[in-house]
Design brief:
Helix 2 (38-49) links the parallel strand 1 and strand 2. This protein has a 4-stranded parallel sheet with strand order 1-2-3-4, with helices on both faces. The protein has helices at residues 7-23, 38-49, 99-111, 138-156, and strands at residues 32-36, 55-59, 86-91, 117-121. Helix 1 packs across helix 2. The chain has 157 residues and is an alpha/beta fold. The protein contains 4 helices and 4 strands; from the N terminus they run H-E-H-E-E-H-E-H. The longest helix is centred in the C-terminal third of the chain and has 19 residues, at 138-156.
Length: 157
C-alpha cells in the first residue's frame, strides 16, 4: 500500500497531522518528524516541504534513486530546499543505501550550507534499530537512538 501512495499525498497527510496536533494539545512551534526506511526518505522530503518543521531524524531512508510518477524527487534533488536540520542515521553495511549515497548527500548538504548531518554506523546494516529483525545492531541502535533524542532536544528546545 505504501509504495502506491504519491509523495504529494504523503506531504499533504503530514501537513494535516501537524495541523491537528497543533490544535489538540501539541506545540506547533516545536514540529519534528522521524521515520524509518520508507519513512526515513519522507523525513528528508518533509524537511524540504514544510517551512515550519524544526527538526527531523531520518533512519536509513533512501537518498538517491530513479524518479517515478509517484516519487518524482529524491532527497538529493531537494537539498537546497531543506528548511530544517535533519539527522540521518545509516548503516555502513546497507546494500540498499550504499555509503557512497550517504557521502553524496553529506557533500550536497555541506555545499548548500545546511545544518543537517549524516552518521554512518560501521558494522550496521539496514534496519539496525529494529530489535525484531536479524539486522538489529544493539550498539548502533542505542547510539543512534541517543543521538536522535539529543538532536530533537537541541533543535526543538
Amino acid at each position: 500500500i505504501v509504495s502506491k501512495v504519491p509523495d504529494a499525498q504523503v506531504m499533504g497527510d503530514l501537513d494535516a497531522a501537524a495541523r491537528f496536533a497543533g490544535t489538540d494539545g501539541g506545540n506547533a512551534a516545536k514540529l519534528g518528524i522521524t521515520g524509518f526506511c520508507w519513512g526515513g526518505r519522507i523525513v528528508w522530503l518533509y524537511a524540504a516541504h514544510n517551512p515550519r518543521l524544526k527538526a527531523g531524524v531520518a533512519c536509513y531512508g533512501r537518498l538517491i534513486g530513479k524518479p517515478t510518477e509517484l516519487q518524482p524527487k529524491n532527497p538529493i534533488d531537494l537539498v537546497s530546499a531543506i528548511n530544517a536540520p535533519v539527522l540521518g542515521l545509516y548503516g555502513a553495511l546497507d546494500r540498499g543505501i550504499p555509503v557512497a549515497d550517504t557521502e553524496k548527500m553529506a557533500a550536497a548538504l555541506k555545499a548548500a550550507k545546511k545544518s543537517s548531518e549524516i552518521h554512518v554506523f560501521a558494522g550496521a546494516d539496514h534496519g539496525f534499530l529494529a530489535d525484531y529483525r536479524p539486522s538489529y545492531n544493539e550498539a548502533a541502535a542505542k547510539q543512534g537512538f541517543s543521538e536522535g533524542l539529543a538532536w530533537f532536544r537541541r533543535h526543538l528546545a
